[in-house]
């Protein structure tokens, strides 16, 4: 008798076997986009630690806790030039002086 987890895993494998090649490619792209979402965010928000975040992202996808922590790390930090100019502290000062 299979456990609940084994039943779900075998059902998932059956679904994968029934997909056509285009669906399989789409699923693989979506899966890796979610897995490496912290690395993708680090490209925009935390370029200084992009390499470290990318390397930590590989095993972190196996743990939701580590993945969420890595997501927070990637979303914080120094913004790149364009984002800092648009949303950074300097931009908020310009808005405050324009209003006052």
Number of helices: 7
Mean pLDDT: 80
* SSE class: mainly alpha
Q: Please state roughly what percent of the residues sit in beta strands, choosing from under 5%, 5-15%, 15-25%, 25-35%, 35-45% or over 45%.
A: under 5%
Query: How many runs of DSSP E, i.e. beta strands?
Result: 0
Gyration radius, rounded: 20 Å
Largest sheet at a glance? none
N-end to C-end Cα span: 72 Å
Helical content band = over 70%
| Helix and strand sequence | HHHHHHH
Features:
mainly alpha; 100 residues
Give the helices and strands, then pairings.
Elements: H1 4-18, H2 21-35, H3 37-45, H4 50-60, H5 64-75, H6 81-87, H7 89-99
Helix pairs in contact: 3-4, 3-5, 4-5, 6-7
Structure description:
This protein has 100 residues and is mostly helical. The protein has seven helices and no strands. The protein has helices at 4-18, 21-35, 37-45, 50-60, 64-75, 81-87, 89-99. The protein is elongated, with a radius of gyration of 20 Å. Residues 95-100 have low confidence and may be disordered.
In short:
With 100 residues, the chain is an all-alpha fold. It has helices at residues 4-18, 21-35, 37-45, 50-60, 64-75, 81-87, 89-99.
